[in-house]
Write a structure and sequence with these properties.
Length: 59
Amino acid sequence: MPWTPRSPAHRDPEQWRRRGLLPPAELDALVRARLGWLAVEDPAYADFSTDPTAALPGE
């Protein structure tokens, strides 16, 4: 989901840099450059309903 700026200050990249932060567009580009090659599947129901205390297969 893309980030939506709420005020003119949020739209100004220099305001972000003044506070030591990356503007959202630059941060998004950085993440895509570093992780864009990963094949990511949509989460499945099982991702959220497994028992964290259960032994893993092969243990």
